Amino acid sequence: MSRIGKTPIKLPKEVKVAISNNTISLEGPKGKLSLDVPFRIKVEQKEDQLLIQRAHNSKQDCSNHGTVRALINNMVEGITKGHKKELEIKGVGFRVQLQGTKLVMSLGFSHPVEYDLPKEVKVTVPSLTQITIEGIDKAAVGHVAAKIRDFKRPEPYKGKGIRYVGEVVKRKQGKSVTK
Fold first, then answer.
1. Domain check: are 160 and 108 in the same one?
2. Burial of residue 68 (number of CB atoms within 10 Å: 0-12, 13-18, 19+)
3. Rounded to an integer, what distance in angstroms lies between the CA atom of residue 65 and that of residue 125?
4. Do 75 and 88 belong to one domain?
5. Which domain holds residue 119?
6. pLDDT tens digits for the chain (179 residues)?
7. I need a labelling partner for 114 at 20 to 30 A (CA). Which of 9, 41, 82, 122 fits?
């Protein structure tokens, strides 16, 4: 049995839950999210907890059991606290600016890189080399952070590029002169 799927999800007082057919909708202080649950997975609310159960012990049902529980838990966390990813830019002359709904980055190319920001996330630029991405949907926040990072991944020789805060980039030695 799935250890993750068995554990109940504790609901804070400010979260409202609506379960209908195969859809669960959660509403909290930061917003509203919904999820389509696979038809063999059942979600029940008992007092201030959500219980996730599966119909059978097939391999697919076991996989879905833990996954659905993790997704719902991320939704509860998102509508109460929110999700956040931070990126930093390393490199001489590399910088970022926020212009309306566009992120304009100077990353050493012959042209500035522009990225149109989706509406479901909030992006702030605290300094010229930092980007903060916030939102209630964990998948959307992670997707936007990954897209921005893909414009210039950190390279292993000098470490230049866009990386997550705290990410360790393994450095290579480069050419060595032999005598």
1. yes
2. buried
3. 38
4. no
5. 83-164
6. 568 888 999 999 999 999 998 899 999 999 999 999 999 999 999 989 999 999 888 999 988 999 999 999 999 999 999 999 999 999 999 999 999 999 999 999 999 999 999 999 999 999 999 999 999 999 999 999 999 999 999 999 999 999 999 999 999 988 876 66
7. 82
Q: Is residue 133 part of a domain?
A: yes
CATH code of residue 145? 3.90.930.12
pTM above 0.85, yes or no: yes
Question: Is 174 domain-assigned?
Answer: no
Query: Is residue 89 domain-shared with residue 75, that is, in the same domain?
Result: no
Closest CA to 167 of 149, 147, 140, 141: 149
One-letter amino acid for residue 2 of the chain: S
Q: How far is Cα 163 from Cα 45, in angstroms, rounded to an integer?
A: 40
176 token code pair: 């060595």
Half-sphere exposure in the Cβ direction for 87 (13 Å, CA):
30
